[in-house]
Amino acid sequence: MADRRPRVDPARLAAHDVLRAVRVDDAYANLVLPQVLRQHGLRERDAAFATELASGTLRMQGLYDEVIDACLTRPRLEAKVRDVLRLGVHQLLSMRVPDHAAISTSVDLTRARVGQGPAGLVNAVLRKVTEGDIEEWRRRVSPDRADDLLGHLAVRHSHPRWVVEALAQALDRPAELETLLMADNDAPGVTLVARPGLSTTEELVAAGGTASGRSPYAVSLSGGDPAAIPAVAEGRAGVQDEGSQLVALAVADAPLAGRDERWLDLCAGPGGKAALLASLAAGRNATVVAHERQPHRAALVANALRAVPPQAYRVVTGDGTRPSWVPGTFDRVLVDAPCSGLGALRRRPESRWRRSPGDLDELVPLQRALLDAGAESLRPGGVMVYATCSPVLAETVEVLDAVLAGRGDLEELDRMMLWPHRDGTDAMFAATLRRRS
């Protein structure tokens, strides 16, 4: 008997599988996507299509949900049907996919992944979506700009309102808020790091990259699979946002008097900054302790460090708020604290929908405790960088000010705030401190 199940192209199946993993398994899209692409055997154009379809849908799902709800006659909708509709809306409003192809493939996807029942609903909703382009739909579903600016921007640029409010408070130039939100929705480029002593920017440029700007080790990659580059496959280079590189360099380059042999990365997972620090330390006869609380993340750190000379680092698992070493052990310390991650919305599109203001109630005390533990680990005269991949004031300036107010032995040397719309990096905060003698 012939197989009458609808045939859906693997790229759309892969994108749907990513959305399902994010929703059901609480997965991170950027981590699950490579696995899904391999499972479906996707390469080059098909892989790029699936990546844009999944990541773009996740970024814009707030706006798309408003559009979908405006097209429904009944408010209730199964989550797995909404996944298919979101994918269809992204193809109709934000990708160069013909209307008939976006609708028919979405109906087939519904039959293949959900069942025959909702296929008619998906067809009807998506046909209504074709009545306007994305700008028309933004005008229809967004609050009036004059009456509610933040609400208008939240819907128009698909951010939760509380995130827009937090970014508005953190941004030193309020007129740039909409530009920042737009930058959050741009697909990020791939940036490589040539780990010093192991690789060079020249090697990565020869593999198809372009030397980048502020980090001397950064190379941007316009396309292709980074893992296919030998230096990346061997761990001599890695994929690392330039902002992340600059944070590690702030630790390594801070002026320091006296001994410079013992470095600490207190929250080292998943290992990008630790690998850059350790490769720099190897050239200075220093050693990095890469400390991570969670064993599975410590394994990621060890993998990131696999090409670094073993005498230049040690991976340690433990509670960073209660260090096992003697106070004053280290000359340089990085406290890259767990945070909301709202500075990395370009590459972690689902994060904006997972976080809530209540998360800060748990994160901020942890950040303060880790910064205090980092200060205790630092020798008098040593230098420390407190960093977050978040611009939110509660996690950055307010944490720093609270710890500085409670300790008389720390002084601030420098402060850096990077923004995607200005610097082309994740939004990253870094403050360099010295422990007074």
Automatic annotation (TrEMBL):
Record-annotated active site: 389
Residues reported in the UniProt entry to bind S-adenosyl-L-methionine: 267-273, 292, 319, 336
Transferase keyword on record: yes
Alphabetical list of InterPro entries matching this protein: MeTrfase_RsmB-F_NOP2_cat, MeTrfase_RsmB-F_NOP2_dom, NusB-like_sf, NusB_RsmB_TIM44, RCMT, RsmB/NOL1/NOP2-like_CS, SAM-dependent_MTases_sf
Pfam families: Methyltr_RsmB-F, NusB
Family: Belongs to the class I-like SAM-binding methyltransferase superfamily. RsmB/NOP family.
Name of the molecule in the record: rRNA cytosine-C5-methyltransferase
Protein source organism: Nocardioides seonyuensis
Taxonomic lineage: Bacteria, Bacillati, Actinomycetota, Actinomycetes, Propionibacteriales
